C-alpha cells in the first residue's frame, strides 16, 4: 500500500509532463475458514471465498445456508455453489450452524444464523465487502433460517440481509411435522415460521420451487410471495412443473436419491444469476 502511495504521488508530480496511469494493487483470490461463534462449546465456522479484486474495492457478499432438515448438513455441501458465485465477483460465506441433535433445536440454528449475519457485518472491512450489499442464499431448511431473519427477526442489533435467494425453502414450518418434532411440540407452532410472520421492509426475494414438492410445498411459497407483495416487497417465484423438493424428478422419495434434470439445473442457476446480476451482486461472465 505504501508503494502504491509513492507511485500516486510521483504521478501527481509528473502529471504536467507526461501521462501516468495508476493501477491499485490487486487483492488476490482467497479461500479460508474462520470461527464466527462458539456457543455452548460449539466452534462454528464459516467458509469464505473471496474473488480477486482491487485494493480498496468492496464486493457484494452472499451468505449461504445449507439444507438438511435442520439435523444434517455442512457448509461444505455448498462449496460448488459458493465457488460459482465467487467466480462472478461476490464474496461468498458458507455458514455452519448447530444441527438438531441431542438437546439442540432449530431455535439454536436460527440464533446461529443471526450471529453469522452480525459477524459478517462487523467484519465487512476485513472481508472486503460492501456492508450494504449482503444477500442470503438458503436451501431447504437453510431457506427457512434465511427467511426467518427478516420475518421472525433477529435481535434489534442484527440487520437482516439485503436480498434473498430461497431454494425449496421450508416457509410454513407451523405445518411442518418434522420441524415441530424437532422443536419438541412448541406451544406456538407459528413463532418460528416465516409465513406467519411476514411484515414490511423485507428485502427483494427470489424463490426456486418445485410444484410437486411434498416436503416444502409449492403452495406455501406462493402464499409467502403474495404476503410479501402485499407489503410492496418484490417477490418472484421460478416454478418448475412435475418436480419435487430441490427439483427432483423422483417424486416417491424427495428426501434423498435426488434426480434433477440437467435442463432444470441450468434454468435454476441462470434464474438465480440473473436475479443477482439485476441487483448488482454478480458480474457478467462471458
What is the terminal separation in angstroms? Answer: 31 Å
Mean pLDDT: 92
For the record, the CATH class is: Alpha Beta
User: How much strand?
Assistant: 15-25%
In total, how many beta strands? 10
The strand order across the widest sheet is 2-3-6-5-7-8-9-10
Topology as H/E string? Answer: HEEEEEHEHHEHEHEHEH
Instruction: Provide the CATH topology.
Output: Rossmann fold
- CATH architectural category: 3-Layer(aba) Sandwich
Tertiary shape: globular
Describe this structure in words.
- The chain is an alpha/beta fold and 286 residues long.
- It has helices at residues 2-14, 79-86, 106-122, 124-127, 141-153, 177-183, 218-230, 262-278, and strands at residues 26-27, 30-37, 44-50, 53-54, 59-65, 91-95, 129-139, 163-167, 205-210, 235-240.
- The relative contact order is 0.11.
- Residues 1-18 have low confidence and may be disordered.
- It starts with a helix and ends in an 8-residue tail after the last helix.
Amino acid at each position: 500500500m505504501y508503494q502504491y502511495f509513492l507511485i500516486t504521488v510521483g504521478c501527481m508530480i509528473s502529471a504536467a509532463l507526461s501521462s501516468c496511469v495508476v493501477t491499485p494493487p490487486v487483492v488476490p483470490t482467497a479461500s479460508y475458514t474462520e470461527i464466527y461463534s462458539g456457543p455452548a462449546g460449539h466452534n462454528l465456522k464459516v467458509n469464505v471465498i473471496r474473488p480477486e479484486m482491487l485494493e480498496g474495492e468492496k464486493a457484494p457478499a452472499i451468505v449461504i445456508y445449507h439444507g438438511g432438515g435442520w439435523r444434517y448438513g455442512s457448509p461444505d455441501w455448498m462449496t460448488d455453489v459458493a465457488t460459482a458465485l465467487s467466480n462472478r465477483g461476490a464474496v461468498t460465506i458458507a455458514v455452519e450452524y448447530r444441527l438438531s441433535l441431542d438437546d439442540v433445536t432449530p431455535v439454536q440454528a436460527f440464533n446461529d444464523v443471526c450471529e453469522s449475519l452480525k459477524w459478517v457485518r462487523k467484519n465487512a472491512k476485513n472481508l472486503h465487502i460492501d456492508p450494504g450489499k449482503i444477500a442470503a442464499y438458503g436451501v431447504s431448511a437453510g431457506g427457512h433460517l434465511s427467511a426467518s431473519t427478516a420475518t421472525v427477526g433477529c435481535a434489534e442489533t442484527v440487520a437482516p440481509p439485503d436480498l434473498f435467494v430461497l431454494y425449496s425453502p421450508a416457509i410454513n414450518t407451523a405445518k411442518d411435522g418434522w420441524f415441530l418434532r424437532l422443536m419438541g411440540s412448541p406451544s406456538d407452532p407459528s413463532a418460528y415460521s416465516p409465513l406467519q410472520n411476514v411484515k414490511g421492509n423485507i428485502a427483494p426475494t427470489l424463490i426456486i420451487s418445485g410444484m410437486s414438492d411434498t416436503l416444502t410445498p409449492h403452495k406455501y411459497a406462493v402464499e409467502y410471495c403474495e404476503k410479501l407483495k402485499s407489503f410492496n416487497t418484490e417477490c418472484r417465484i421460478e416454478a418448475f412443473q412435475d418436480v419435487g423438493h430441490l427439483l427432483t424428478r423422483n417424486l416417491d422419495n424427495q428426501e434423498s436419491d435426488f434426480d434433477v434434470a440437467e435442463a432444470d439445473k441450468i434454468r435454476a442457476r441462470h434464474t438465480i444469476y440473473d436475479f443477482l446480476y439485476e441487483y448488482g451482486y454478480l458480474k457478467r461472465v462471458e
